[in-house]
Amino acid sequence: MADGRTERGRRTREKIADALLELLDEGVVEFPAERVAERAGVSRRLVFHHFVDMSELVDLAITRRLEQLAEQVRPLPVTGPRGVRVAALAEQRARILEWITPARLTLLRIEHPSPRVRQVTEEAFAEARRRVAEIFAEELGRLDAERAAELLDGLDAVTTWGAWHHWRSGGKSPQQARAAMEATVLNLLVSADHPRA
């Protein structure tokens, strides 16, 4: 019986968090409990039965969105023509970064994110960098350790949310931002073709 209650409670918490994420995706930036409760189909009282306050709810919702990000990532080619690898990376990153933007903007407004949110965020950044290193291992492998690290830093920087948000907030459409990412990555990789003497 207790296990059933625990499972129902977990599902209700997730339902409430998902309601907040739906509002987030629609561009809502304030989350009054009444609005979240209405979207989740529960009472305001039930929201505060499951969450101490709205910041705890936002925290869970952001954590869920960051965990969902990992489910969006598919294997990308790590061998073959450079242009194909770059295009595949730009397509996937553009799609994911556009989708994650509302949650990232909300996260920036949270003064003290929980240790769990910080951990999930750091893991996402580390995994994104690892995947870039894997996709361009051929180019990075031609360079000495210092230059390879510099190139990887650049590739990592232009394929993460900061660069994406810069392009999008500067007026570029998602298609234009994706093209800018693709061109920038290609230009950075040219340096691997001309190792310094």
UniProtKB/TrEMBL annotation:
Keywords: DNA-binding, Transcription, Transcription regulation
Record flagged with keyword Transcription regulation: yes
Pfam families: TetR_N (PF00440)
InterPro entries: Homeodomain-like_sf, HTH-type_TetR-like_transc_reg, HTH_TetR
Residue ranges annotated for the HTH tetR-type domain, each copy included: 10-69
DNA-binding region: 32-51
Protein name from the UniProt record: TetR/AcrR family transcriptional regulator
